[in-house]
Amino acid sequence: MRSVTEYLWYETKQRRELINITDRVETIVSGSRIAEGMVLVSAMHITAGVFVNDHEPGLWEDIWSWLQTLAPAGPDYKHHRTGEDNGDAHLKSILVHHQVIVPITKGKLDLGPWQQIFYAEFDGQRRKRLVVKAMGE
Amino acid sequence: MRSVTEYLWYETKQRRELINITDRVETIVSGSRIAEGMVLVSAMHITAGVFVNDHEPGLWEDIWSWLQTLAPAGPDYKHHRTGEDNGDAHLKSILVHHQVIVPITKGKLDLGPWQQIFYAEFDGQRRKRLVVKAMGE
Amino acid sequence: MRSVTEYLWYETKQRRELINITDRVETIVSGSRIAEGMVLVSAMHITAGVFVNDHEPGLWEDIWSWLQTLAPAGPDYKHHRTGEDNGDAHLKSILVHHQVIVPITKGKLDLGPWQQIFYAEFDGQRRKRLVVKAMGE
């Protein structure tokens, strides 16, 4: 069994940002020389998410406004008694999930034609990271 | 390490459909001769989901009406500027997640007594596929 | 390849309860003597969830009230024609997802500083279980 672990760091300019990280994950997988296996892509913070969907700017706007509807930013969270103001970012992270697994087949990410991997930052403007761990043979 | 990769194709008659795929995944796992490992079941399209829940038709109706409430079909998505009309299907896919991992123990899917694996089609009536990848020993 | 499979049983006092299970998963991983790999933590019931987030009681209150807003308990579920009264618990399970994968790096759970693993019981007061399966080398 072969495994490789790398950490991707991001410090977004906006508080909320979507970043297509497919190429960076692909590069890690190529470098791992794993032909058959799986790669886990997982946010290491509880106010960020990772999901697979479409590289289409209109859809990104839809996703943001949808997340604001279902898990709105606001002053009313009990979590804010700690001094934080990011209660909504925790709920958004739970909603979109913080991780995906992508199969590795014949040395490549085995994604469908429109599937791209996104890092969803819900409380950025500081250094945060993801773990990318590939396992296989 | 042993691994097996298979693709399941579906072309649903309805635009939205739930399909219990547990038996097909079980067959792939049996054929793989993996005794201990994990199997990833992952939609390869961004307008479909995979989840584990109950084989109970009343519940399926509840799931559909709930998904329509939280991620309604409608004309107002920015994504529709591309000519598509399936914005809701993308959001539903993110909501239910597009993949599950099932442990393989003693050669079988290690599911609880009521756990069944479902493919959730949100924009069907065309050929679409899932990847099923098992890894283990 | 090395693998270990253990089952964690819980019988909550309340119908709905959040339990931090990070230490129990860490103990299983230590005992497995896996240095590099992944551990799957997955509810075996369809009315429970597993997620990673913050150990902060104010946030837990936010999560509960948010889940009640998005997937409210109520009498109106079609699933209740079977005699059950836990329709909301199924939807909550789908919403938060029933599983997470945690990377194992240098023999430890490779979590971010605030990441903790929670079992979310949505229909407890009876014996229910999770599967914890670690794989690696």
Topology:
Three copies of one chain form a homotrimer.
Chain A: E1 2-10, E2 17-20, H1 22-32, E3 37-43, E4 48-53, H2 57-70, H3 87-96, E5 99-105, E6 108-109, E7 116-121, E8 128-136
Antiparallel strand pairs in A: 1-8, 2-7, 3-5, 3-8, 4-7, 5-6
The tally of structural domains of chain A comes to: 1
> Main beta sheet of chain A, described?
5 strands, antiparallel
Gap from first CA to last CA of chain A: 5 Å
Q: Per the principal axes of the C-alpha atoms, what is the gross shape of chain A? A: elongated
Tell me what the CATH architecture of chain A is: Sandwich
Q: Structural class of the secondary elements of chain A?
A: alpha+beta
Rg over C-alpha atoms of chain A, rounded to the nearest angstrom: 16 Å
Helix and strand string of chain A, N-terminal first? Answer: EEHEEHHEEEE
Supply the number of helical segments of chain A: 3
Please state the oligomeric state of the protein chains shown.
homotrimer
Any low-confidence stretches of chain A, pLDDT <50, length ≥5? none
| CATH class value of chain A | Mainly Beta
Strand order of the largest sheet of chain A: 1-8-3-5-6
CATH topology group of chain A = Jelly Rolls
InterPro entries (chains A, B, C): UPF0047_YjbQ-like (IPR001602), YjbQ-like_sf (IPR035917)
Pfam family, one (chains A, B, C): YjbQ
Protein name (chains A, B, C): YjbQ family protein
Account of the protein in words:
The structure is a homotrimer of 137-residue chains. With 137 residues, chain A is α+β, with helices and mostly antiparallel strands. The first copy, chain A, has one domain (2-74, 86-136): Jelly Rolls (Sandwich). Chain A contains 3 helices and 8 strands; from the N terminus they run ββαββααββββ. Chain A has a 5-stranded antiparallel beta sheet with strand order 1-8-3-5-6, covered by helices on one side. In chain A, strands 2-7-4 form a 3-stranded antiparallel beta sheet. The longest helix of chain A is centred in the middle third of the chain and has 14 residues, at 57-70. The first copy, chain A, is elongated. The mean pLDDT of chain A is 98.
